[in-house]
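Support request from a user on the community tier.

User writes: "When I paste my structure tokens into the form, the page sometimes reloads and wipes my input. The last time it worked, I copied everything first. Here is what I submitted, just in case something in the input itself triggers the reload:"
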């Protein structure tokens, strides 16, 4: 089937959305989810007992999709699987731009009936060149338009990230947790079984979207590997792509079949092919969020040498170990840097090899320290450690301003690590500090390990891109 990207664009940026089959037993999840939608919202439901609840939401209901008085850009279908094909027929007749089928119970059940019902949807869609999203998925999230996968997703902000996931749970978890870490979605899709429009199509669509700067993906398998890797290689040369692959173990491989019915790929073959495309792979949600954050905020990372400051003496060994174990280097600074530091640095409660342990005494000289590290010829990246526990907000604001100034004038990548103890007050303050850093263009991470891993992954991305481009 030939994908019409103008139809996909209507589905991701709709002016009219229709929810088919929503029910009170799910607390009208889909209609409530679209309560923030900026366009026109309708319902289709034939059950009189449900219609009363729909009207109470203030949504106009019709008993047939054909009766909707305007053209429909996106239909969200939540009906039993045995009537899914009838709804699809109406979508085709109505010339709906695209339909997201939340409905499940198809090939992923590994039953003859499920496979037969899914085959019918595919057959109808391909014959009509109809753009079916799913089935067995959570569909589209576009915070800018107010289109949501669940009622509690945010719509007060949007960012430069596109996210493509076979899993609805991972699509929602990524969007919500990344938002808490100051990284916002531009567009996201959970595509489930992906029987008509597959991950490759969404990848190509997102590559054409100028608002999307970085693409994250959670995949379990691909249907046309040759086409996928061809498109992936091209897209990754244009904008960063980060992939979290499910089913890396035998147990995970088995679980894929019952989840989305995807065909698994040999892990060794997958790893080699993805690397050749210039794509960074991650193995968990937190790493995906942090890597995407690094690629959104950091200057291009062309070196693996790190200068670190802001900690205390007792942390130095642990800090150096964390960055070294992530595959980065924590080298000695240049002689020029040491000579300049010696003119003012107090060794009482501090030290300035690398990491530079400022302690409390040298903290007031942070501007001079950061300027020296910014100029240092032996390092490529700059890391500042701050804490939500000891530092006053006045000091933290000064640190944020200093790092933001470096971000504006220097090509040396700079990031912050925000530590805190596990108390509600400090966690909240750490989140506020992290967002303030990122408002100034400096990515901030909540743990040494997470920041080090994100920086290494960003370095790997630019290294891969350079080596592939060199060929």
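"...and here is what came back when it finally went through:"
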């Amino acid at each position: 089937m030939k994908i019409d990207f103008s139809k996909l664009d209507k589905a991701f940026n709709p002016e009219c959305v229709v929810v088919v089959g929503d029910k009170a037993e799910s607390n009208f999840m889909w209609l409530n989810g679209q309560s923030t939608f900026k366009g026109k919202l309708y319902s289709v439901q034939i059950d009189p007992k449900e219609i009363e609840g729909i009207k109470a939401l203030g949504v106009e209901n019709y008993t047939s999709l054909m009766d909707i008085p305007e053209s429909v850009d996106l239909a969200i279908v939540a009906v039993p699987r045995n009537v899914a094909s009838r709804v699809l027929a109406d979508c085709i007749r109505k010339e709906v731009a695209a339909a997201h089928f939340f409905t499940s119970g198809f090939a992923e059940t590994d039953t003859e009936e499920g496979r037969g019902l899914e085959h019918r949807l595919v057959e109808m869609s391909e014959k009509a060149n109809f753009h079916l999203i799913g089935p067995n998925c959570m569909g589209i999230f576009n915070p800018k338009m107010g289109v949501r996968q669940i009622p509690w997703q945010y719509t007060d902000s949007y960012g430069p990230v596109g996210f493509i996931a076979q899993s609805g749970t991972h699509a929602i978890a990524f969007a919500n947790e990344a938002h808490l870490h100051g990284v916002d979605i531009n567009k996201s899709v959970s595509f489930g079984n992906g029987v008509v429009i597959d991950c490759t199509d969404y990848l190509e669509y997102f590559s054409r979207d100028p608002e999307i700067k970085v693409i994250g993906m959670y995949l379990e398998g691909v249907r046309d590997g040759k086409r996928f890797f061809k498109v992936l290689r091209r897209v990754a040369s244009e904008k960063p792509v980060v992939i979290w692959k499910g089913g890396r173990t035998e147990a995970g491989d088995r679980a894929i079949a019952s989840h989305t019915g995807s065909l698994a790929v040999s892990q060794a073959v997958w790893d080699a092919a993805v690397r050749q495309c210039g794509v960074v792979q991650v193995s968990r949600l937190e790493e995906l969020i942090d890597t995407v954050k690094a690629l959104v905020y950091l200057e291009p990372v062309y070196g693996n040498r790190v200068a670190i400051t802001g900690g205390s003496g007792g942390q130095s060994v642990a800090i150096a170990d964390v960055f070294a174990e992530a595959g980065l280097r924590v080298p000695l600074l240049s002689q020029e840097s040491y000579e300049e530091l010696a003119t003012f640095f107090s060794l009482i409660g501090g030290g300035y090899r690398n990491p530079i342990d400022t302690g409390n005494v040298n903290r007031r000289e942070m501007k001079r320290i950061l300027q020296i590290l910014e100029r240092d010829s032996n390092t490529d990246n700059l890391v500042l450690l701050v804490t939500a526990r000891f530092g006053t907000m006045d000091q933290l604001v000064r640190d944020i301003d200093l790092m933001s100034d470096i971000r504006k004038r220097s090509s040396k990548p700079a990031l912050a690590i925000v530590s805190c103890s596990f108390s509600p007050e400090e966690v909240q303050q750490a989140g506020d500090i992290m967002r303030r850093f990122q408002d100034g263009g400096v990515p901030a991470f909540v743990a040494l390990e997470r920041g080090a891993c994100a920086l290494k992954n960003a370095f790997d991305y630019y290294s891969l891109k350079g080596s592939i481009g060199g060929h």
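Agent notes: The reload is a front-end session timeout and is unrelated to the input. The two ends are 33 Å apart (CA to CA). Residues 336 and 386 are 26 Å apart (CA to CA). Escalated to web team.
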